[in-house]
Amino acid sequence: MSTALELSLGQDGHHSLSAVPAFLDDTLRGTTSLSFRITKRICDGDSSVYHGKLDCARDEPLNVVCKIVFDEDSDRLEDEAELYTHKMKHLQGTTVPRFYGLFSGTYVNMLGRTRAIRCIIVEAWGSSPTTLKRVPMSLRITIAEAVLRIHAAGVQHNDLRLPNILISPDKREVRIVDFDNASQHDCPRAMPVILYAWEPTLAEFGCSELHDFISNLGIWTLDTIRYLGRLHSVHFSSTPEKMLKNAKSEPTATIPDEPEDQLLARADTLLKNYYKRYGARFPFIGPPGNPIYEGLDEASCAMLEPKVVSVDRLEKCRPPIETPVAQSAVPL
């Protein structure tokens, strides 16, 4: 028995589709007729995305999001449906939204030609932050954990922008959405993610998507400062004098024709800003010049493995969220 879906998109038209049985949520099996009514257009681009209500003969319609793709591009929605229903099935409702189904049909375009149309319907959930700059560290860690779980499931997202990160109203839960650019992934991550640890190199860490994303979340502590056009390690340039000396020792260095006291003042300002941003972390990881890359005990750090870490525990492992450190993470 097939399941029909009527899409009512207001000014954007009306379409009749049928469920692809392999990708229909169990709760909708046996339902012969579904209808989607638009309440708001969310975005247009490679796909058209709508918020609306899914009527499935229940007491209350489901609050859902419908993503529609036309013509040849519609094939990629099947790949997204495959990820939701197989590799990420165990993550539905906790890390990714609940997936209700893939639907397929045809339409006649303006030239009178019959073309393919497909859509997926997922649970409507949360909202996207406009910036991560003032997001508390406990929530940034929850975001990182969600992406770690997705990678552990064998999926690389490939489009981890703010619109694809959804936050609950109480700012304690996260869902990651929009997997039409995702790919299967045997994650090469070689180490755990440790709160406030010195940022490892990509070669040390292993996975480029996770490395870039976690770095942008501000979970790691940067150990370089850009001075006179070059990056300098704070472990070897922890004073203005050392920084200027190291800058002059570069074989291809171009030192501005300025008095030395002005060059030292520049370095001093950079170091003061660095300590203002990261200084509250040093009791956990040691000051510059004494890098600790591993071995932090549980009282001093939070290990970001694919598991839930309680907010209470995280609160004990970081400065209060109102401090400048917690409000100055690098935005995505």
TrEMBL record:
Coiled coil: none annotated. This is Protein kinase domain-containing protein. It comes from the Eukaryota. InterPro entries: Kinase-like_dom_sf, Meiotic_Drive_Suppr_Kinase. It comes from Phanerochaete sordida.
